[in-house]
Write a structure and sequence with these properties.
The chain is of the alpha/beta class. The protein contains five helices and five strands.
Length: 127
Amino acid sequence: MTQRWIVDAMNVIGSRPDGWWKDRRKALATLVDRLESWAQETGNRVTVVFERPPSPPITSSVIEIAHAPRAAPNSADDEIVRIVQADRDPQEVTVVTSDSGLAERVRRAGASVYPAASFRRLIDSAP
């Protein structure tokens, strides 16, 4: 069965101290590449949420790339909660994050939560 996944981009990227902060744009593009592979392999619907639009833009024909309307503290979290609340079946949504505040907010909205580090291992093993 196809599932809907919403990915807290920086939480997943930051789950591994692999030097991502030296080239944030590359880290975002690498995450999108891994999410595309995983989505194609599993058939899951994936939305990745950034704090702000990447520059230059990152596009995908496989997954949805979203961002907060404006960059601010917790703006990506607010956008993730908005997406969950707007979903017709929030109980069918899994949010990938290890942010306890965001996890509580999306659970209250009906979604489930999957830990960021575990998800990173999952998508890193995708072909």
